[in-house]
Design brief:
This protein has 238 residues and is an all-alpha fold. The chain contains 13 helices and no strands. The relative contact order is 0.12.
Length: 238
Amino acid sequence: MTEMKNKINILLSLIKINFANLLIYRTNFIISFIDEATWFTISVFFYKYIYISAYGIHGVSLRYLLILVSFSEIIKSILFSLCISNLPYFPRMVRNGSLDNILIKPIDSQFFVSFRKFDFGNILNVMPPIIIITYYNLIDIKYLPIIILLVLVSILTCYSLWFIVTTSAIWFINIDDIHELFFGILSLNQFPSIVFKKTSNAVFLILLPILCSTNIPAEYVIRQNHIFYSYCNCFIYN
């Protein structure tokens, strides 16, 4: 309990320090928000007008796709605001020896390596998907607590995958952009699991469960099934 309290105090102190930096570099904050909001808008129009109007995806509704893209953006925005200024620099820390200094500090090393800096420009990017969800009335308010819980679990799942990929730099020290591998994996969570073949589904639902991060919450929103059934549906409807 004391350790958790110390982590919370440290986290609040780090937030204050990073917020002070934000006030100095406001332009970066605005540009980051515009950039991410633009890409989210493009994704929404991509699904709405190309996938649905022109080609369509068998067995996938427009509502499902909008929920999927919205959850994907919310998860990415929160995850990036916490870790994008930290984990990509881990390989460099391994090479230049600065990781050794962190390991001898009286603080949880994983906690400090992952959350020492914050990108507030990304946190605002949760607003466009929330606007989409609200405007199209995509979620029944009575299921909101469970949906929030599912999204939080999804964020933890994505963070775990990112940390696993990043820490492999301890063995592959000459690969500076190893985090790009995770970014490629993360981009898959904006697609419905039905578009993947069964082998790919097995990989990205079980071995590297990146599809679970959005497809299970989306399945739950659409069908209001038990969470276990929502997970099974990702297989059954393929």
